[in-house]
Design a protein that fits this description.
By secondary structure, the chain is mainly beta. It has one domain (2-36, 82-252). 13% of the residues lie in helices and 49% in strands. The protein has helices spanning 2-12, 145-153, 155-159, 162-173, and strands spanning 39-46, 52-60, 63-71, 74-84, 87-93, 98-104, 107-114, 120-129, 132-140, 180-187, 190-196, 199-204, 238-243, 246-257, 260-270, 273-283. The chain has a 16-stranded antiparallel beta barrel. The longest helix has 12 residues, at 162-173. It is globular.
Length: 284
């Protein structure tokens, strides 16, 4: 099955990506996504390999209606969005799993994730320092491969470098069902570091262009290297993943379509080997 194949690849691959979420501004409350351009398609390409379609977006006016995901060139799944006004209320995938969002005024309170029989599988809760998210707590209630898949595909999968996601996935696969706590620090409008346990992920060298994912907060969406920092207004040039005594740097090279990225090339070095992946955006 394609989903299980991708999960297996995900859990065994050590590559670095950057972050994905955003803090709440006073203009746009949590759950509202207003990008400068509307994404139509996202393509990815490994060095020496052909480019492939990874995402296809549909819109209902200014709102994301659905995102379809492709694995190895084949359809893998679809998320459909429902709203309460301009705010995301629920995201349901084509397998019947769904996430429900709860808000406290202009901030996120929690997101709950359910299986098709309405059993609560996991939840995420938020703490704020002023207007910025400072602590995210992920609790898994049921050991279920789809919970791990949700984390991989959702905003936490985008938020953490893959080294961090590997740690989280291993914890969630453990019958002890450990709680994962992530602490965030900022430099102005951009995240500077994320800490979970003994692992620290540092972000620096931001550009002055707009991050196309800023304020996009999916809980059931495909993990992609380009989703660099939904927490940040701009795009990072470097991410360093510190896993104990191991440091794994990733640098990013951008081209732009107006004020947003057209392509993002992520270059990672790990134990004397290097890898590169390019993500290309097509806008409506």
């Amino acid at each position: 099955m394609k989903i299980m194949k991708k999960l297996s690849v995900f859990l065994s691959t050590i590559l670095a990506i950057a972050i994905a979420i955003s803090f709440t501004s006073c203009e746009d409350p949590a759950g509202v996504y207003k990008p400068e351009k509307k994404i139509a398609k996202v393509y990815e390409q490994e060095v020496g390999e052909p480019e492939y379609l990874s995402q296809e977006w549909t819109w209902d006016g200014n709102k994301v209606a659905s995102i379809s995901y492709y694995y190895d060139g084949e359809f893998g799944g679809k998320d459909e969005f429902t709203y309460d006004g301009d705010r995301v209320e629920k995201i349901r995938d084509n397998y019947g799993y769904y996430a429900e969002y709860e808000y406290n005024d202009k901030q996120y309170e929690k997101i709950e994730y359910y299986n098709p029989t309405n059993e609560l599988l996991a939840e995420i809760t938020f703490q704020y320092d002023g207007k910025k998210i400072s602590v995210i707590t992920l609790k898994s209630y049921v050991v279920d491969k789809n919970v791990i898949k949700m984390v991989e595909r959702g905003f936490i999968g985008k938020m953490l470098p893959k080294e961090g996601m590997k740690v989280v996935a291993e914890k969630m696969a453990d019958q002890s069902k450990e709680t994962t706590v992530m602490s965030l620090s900022y430099d102005g409008d951009n995240i500077s570091s994320l800490t979970t346990g003994s692992n620290v992920f540092s972000y620096s060298d931001y550009d002055t262009y707009s991050n196309i994912w800023f304020n996009f907060f999916p809980f059931s969406a495909y993990e992609a290297d380009a989703n660099s920092q939904i927490f940040s207004k701009n795009n990072p040039g470097k991410v360093v993943s510190q896993m104990g005594s191991i440091n794994i740097p990733t640098t990013f090279i951008y081209t732009y379509d107006g004020n947003v990225p057209a392509t993002i090339q992520a270059n990672t070095t790990f134990m004397g080997t290097s890898s590169a992946k390019t993500t290309r955006f097509v806008y409506n």
